[in-house]
Amino acid sequence: MIMRAPTSGLPILFAQVEIRRGGTVLLSDLRLSISAGPPTVLIGPNGSGKTTLLRAAMGLIAPTSGEITWGGQKAPSRTGQAIVFQRPVMLRRSCAGNLEHALAAARVAREKRGARLAELLHIVGLERVAHRPARQLSGGEQQKLALARALARNPSVLFLDEPTASLDPGATEAIEDIVRAVSETGVKVIMATHDLGEARRLADEVVLLHRGAVVESGPAPRFFSDPITDLATRFLAGELLV
After folding, report:
1. Domain boundaries in the chain?
2. Which residues contact 178 (CB under 8 A, 6 or more apart)?
3. Which CATH superfamily, name and number, covers 12-236?
4. Which pTM value belongs to this model?
5. Could you give the C-alpha distances from 226 to 45, 186, 220, 223, 234, in angstroms and in order?
6. Average pLDDT score, the chain
């Protein structure tokens, strides 16, 4: 896998960010800094703002007020980031055909696409199904393909929105292994999950969201062993936050 140099697009800073849609507040007075390094994992109950935060960071949703900057710049680099959604859409092509499309969209030189395609298939373990229609792949295989398509962009920052939410334990383990491998190359992974076990396994830094605001953030070992806020303590104990 290609090694990434530290990206100048980090840190991502959220300065008093609010996002409203109609009368609904999706993010409220959000203040957060996400720096280079191992994975940052967003946790929180459904509707807490995890997906909105990811989309806002990517520039897919504009703040109603406040500011988001990447390395001091107001606009993120479109070539330095990629996102994988919880339910990725597969093109009506083979597994390899989906990757060929992604490589072309990433403007990879035609003469380099074959080697890069083979490398991506190897990274996610899909060599044996390369010529199978993508929409006939299992859920876990489709999520692996979605990761490979994102990696075709050779991103410095990779956003993952609940990538294992609907997968069985075996497929979840495979996706987590890929995430670790990607992170070890220097790619900054920012991942949302509802699974506390997954957060414990993958996170270097944890951000707990509730009602569109950051409740608590910090190093994962400290967060899980000694949470600071009452809401974090209750969430870790399995209580429902309403």
Report:
1. 12-236
2. 123, 124, 144, 147
3. P-loop containing nucleotide triphosphate hydrolases (3.40.50.300)
4. 0.94
5. 20, 28, 10, 6, 12
6. 94
